[in-house]
Amino acid sequence: MTIVAAFLVPGSPLPTLRPDNAPWAALVAGYKKAGRALAASKPDVLLIYSTQWIAVLDELWQTRARVAGVHVDENWYDYGDLPYDIPVDRALAEACVEGCRAIGIAAKGVDYDDFPIDSGTIVASGFLNAGAKVPIVIGANNLYHDFPTTAKIAAMAAQKIAAQNKRAAVIGIGGLSGTIFRNEIDLAADHVASEADDAWNRRMLGLFEKGSASEAERLSADYAKAARVDMGFKHFAWIMGALGGRFKGAEVHGYGPTYGAGAAVVEFKL
Amino acid sequence: MPKGEILAGFLAPHPPHLVYGENPPQNEARSEGGWEQLRWAYERARKSLDELKPDVLLVHSPHWMTQLGHHFLGVKKLSGKSVDPIFPNLFRYSFALEVDVALAEACCAKARDKGLVAKMMRNPNFRVDYGTITTLHMIRPQWDIPVVGISANNSPYYLSTQQGLDEMDLLGKATREAIEATGRRAVLLASNTLSHFHFHEEPALPEDMSREHPFDMTGYRWDMRMIELLRKGKTDEVFRVLPQFIDEAFAEVKSGAFTWMFAAMGYPQIPGELHGYGTVIGTGNAVMEWNLAKAAA
Fold first, then answer.
1. Range(s) of the domain holding residue A235
2. Does pTM surpass 0.90?
């Protein structure tokens, strides 16, 4: 088994920047549980896809040996900075670049000092990979790649992981329902923007818990449209691709709002 | 204090390829050139800007996209290296800019007065987006004029095009009031491409101009139609067909800078001066100027 753990987690920096805010406590606690589960799975590498690393030309892969710096979120800069220092598994990333090309998807490595790592990758790495002990591989969210293409890229990456005889945790970083509040709110009163969004989120999470992978995948397009799910729910496509379209169930470690949008920390049972 | 005024507005698109093609010392990436027609268009715009001698440049960029309202750079000095997350092979630019914080605060306050959600960005570690930097470099590479940087609220995409552009109209009117109240002689920069369908793969040599052309005839036709209307000063007609242009050509003006600029200028029915047109990875880009100072003389 080359994929030893799989997680769907939010990319909003709010729980990191304000962990003491009550409505975000469930996500913080969930992230901590997921971090322990990830550590227990003893991965050699984290295979990451974040909806917030956006590409429009080619599929980009981070190939810098170590990415480090201080990031400031373009929306939530008021709440502080996001320092990061994360090692990258270059050998695997470069194999993924070649692997993309082999399946007909133009791809490139990104190896530049000061490249802006996205908030989602930094937040998830901070919670799940404390101390940056495990190297990561990050694939970009090409806006022109649909759900099946994203799954196909992740499946290719899983093959490369197997070929390199590595143990990997796959991580899809992104939100659930995407309606955010468009006026300033009292952070202590944050909640999922509508009952309809909340119901959709819980329905999808319920399918995860039941291990209904095919049904979850089938429903993804409707869910994405009805609940304005972050980037068409392609972070779930990433997980499905890496897992070969199968999981036995899931544990929802945390669910809650991020300024009206829905978010959850989910660990899939393999 | 004398009443401030808007001297001119420029349509000033931000493909980082233009900086890459120029090879300025601030950019790490080196090129063999490329996109000359657009770079020469900017040379003409630079000359015109030089003659205007503004106190401040205001730029509205679609690559600082904000969810909660309209944001303004609010730190006096900002510097760093801007690496384009989409074209890091082309754009790794060391910048240092001075913000006209007083004007930015006035714009923010006026926007709030009009019912918009508006915020000042006060974090000194904030990374200025590459759209803002590219437009500012291309129009004024000396970096010797203070700036006001304005985010693009995602309302045209999140709500509807019309709702979003209505917000940009209010933002433009607020900007004008702030300029007048603070006595500034200002130039506006709308950092927008026209037709925005583009190629999805990059040539091995990015500046291989044999690979550069309009993405499709639909976008090209639309660009020419809009430029011709703008050259004739038919501003009302431009804004009448703008939603259709946005839909059919996937025009980046949807993000609001173009509407913001024209609202601030009072939608003048004067001919715009086309400094040049060209494509970048298939997108249509025009550098154009509306010189209000000259029109009033």
1. 3-269
2. yes
